Amino acid sequence: KNYYGGNWASFSFSGLLSWIKEKQQKTEVSDECEDWRKLILENEEVISLNNSDKTIEHVEDFCFGNQDSAEDVEEAGALSKLPLFGSSGAQGAAQDPEKQSAPVENTLAEPAASSDPASATGGNETEVTPEREGSPDPASGEPASDVGETEAAPSESAAQEPKKITYAQIVREGRRFNIDLVSKLLYSRGLLIDLLIKSNVSRYAEFKNATRILAFREGKVEQVPCSRADVFNSKQLTMVEKRLLMKFLTFCLEYEQHPDEYQDYENRTFAEFLGTRKLTPSLQHFILHSIAMVSETDCSTLDGIQATKKFLQCLGRYGNTPFLFPLYGQGEIPQCFCRMCAVFGGIYCLRHSVQCLVVDKESGRCKAVLDHFGQRISANYFVVEDSFLSESTSKNVCYRQISRAILITDQSILKTDSEQQVSILRMPPVDSGQPAVCIIELCSSTMTCMKDSYLVHLTCPSSKTAREDLEPVVQKLFSLNTETEEETENEEVEKPRVLWAVYFNMRDSSGVDRSSYDRLPSNVYVCSGPDSALGNDCAVRQAETIFQEMFPTEEFCPPPPNPEDTVYDEEEPASEDSGLNNAPETKPEPSPEEGSSEGGATGEPESSEG
């Protein structure tokens, strides 16, 4: 591949168009060394690897604007259709001068323990800063103001008609987009956040709070109260409902102490259990789809309670919701780990494919790989992403699929005074037998789309093709009229208009057991691509498991040493003036004045979280 991250990558708009074209044409990598098999010795055998990616299928893209108007338009500042290092974050900054002003320093610090995880009214972890004050607005280049001020001042554009965005503008501003192939959020107390803080990889990224949890009920989108402050300030709930909701949420936080309240329902679904708790239908809907975010038919009572507890424990650590989103997109996360690895000598070879694994016949262990130039690279351990394994190796594997859709729209699915909202909506199944759909809507201050537009990600486990799974949901929430079509229904006028869309199915190999692969040497470890879950816990657990199997006495992702603590080999003694360039810079602890942040992450340092 010529970009980092595989199916975790992010692209500019032109980069994504090139990726779509590649997947639709199913381009295969040509062999530079056609007679590479002659390089295999008599006591060796090979396990061939794929030279094309078969994890993406059913790619369909649609433009709802006038494409002819964009024929002669070029992406501003673009150097190539598919940049060597992808298009997100600091990698893209080398190719886009406008991004160089955006800081990529540490934005997470080791937090203090929370005394009240159910409450997000006032934080107690003031050292954590999901996003630094003064981060530049991607559209204006001006420092971003604190979101508390933004929400207090009514937005002038909220009362106006949404600005009309053309396809030519999207192409011209293509480098404003950082479009993720996989859509996820980071739980504020999830394994990935803990790992980023521990390993100091967080210094290479910045984060923005998800500002709203939404629900779709009775044909309309509404905001869900989830913290104690939200619940008691809500105008959607009656006083009785507020008390019932807080009583149930408190129970979920302490459910281990009250086993008698749920043990009789352990073999029944969480939805059935909610029906026995004297909760109104609206409260049951909020808890099931917007707080626990679990299936109505398949989730057990205990799993549902645990999911609710996880949600509540994540509230208030960095803001008023449990979730963070990395600026420049999810594709920044693998690149951040790449940067830390490179600091300590790791080497990444893009546009450099591998032909096969070379296996010693006597020991059965893999001893080397051959690349497409015929070069042999030896190692003791080999970690292979599932998509590289050929059909002969994975013939007994049964894969699941993920349905994905990515939309560029002209307005938010729930308009408020503040246009800079990061929203998550879990859409209940449209028809029986269909899965629920997770929808994440990103605004321009996430550095993932141009000004006055929104980037919307839809994800669900596949039952059919991605378009068949997700288009009914898109039609409920958005208008698919083109620029030349007249909108005759008031309902259609009120909906956000889709400007461009792509649908595709992605392989989910997260649940595959190692024993399912055929003829796999013991020192070859297989990692999966993205799964369909909202968080990243599966990937972190898998990485740690593989690392511990290879190096059982070593610590997984330890904190990097300070430059003055770096010890060098005798062959390369360090001097006072040189030799420390490969060590990461140390960063002083942020002052309280630096703790404010956009996205509702901070207020007063003494009473709100950083």
Any chance you could write out the topology, listing elements then pairs?
Blueprint: E1 10-11, H1 13-25, E2 44-48, E3 56-63, H2 89-93, H3 147-152, H4 167-172, E4 179-180, E5 186-187, H5 191-199, E6 207-209, E7 212-217, E8 220-223, H6 228-233, H7 239-253, H8 270-275, H9 281-291, H10 301-314, E9 323-326, H11 332-343, E10 354-360, E11 366-371, E12 376-378, E13 382-385, E14 400-409, E15 423-427, E16 437-442, E17 454-461, H12 466-477, H13 490-494, E18 498-508, E19 524-527, H14 537-550
Parallel strand pairs: 7-15, 13-19
Antiparallel strand pairs: 1-4, 2-10, 3-18, 5-9, 6-9, 7-8, 10-11, 11-12, 14-17, 14-18, 15-16, 16-17
Organism: Nothoprocta ornata
GO molecular function: GDP-dissociation inhibitor activity; GTPase activator activity; transferase activity
Subcellular location: Cytoplasm, Cytosol
- Judging by the overall fold, what is the CATH architecture of the domain at 1-24 and 39-70 and 164-223 and 323-483 and 493-551? 2-Layer Sandwich
| Quantity of strands, as a count | 19
From the N-terminal CA to the C-terminal CA, the straight-line distance is 38 Å
Roughly what fraction of the amino acids lie in strands? Answer: 15-25%
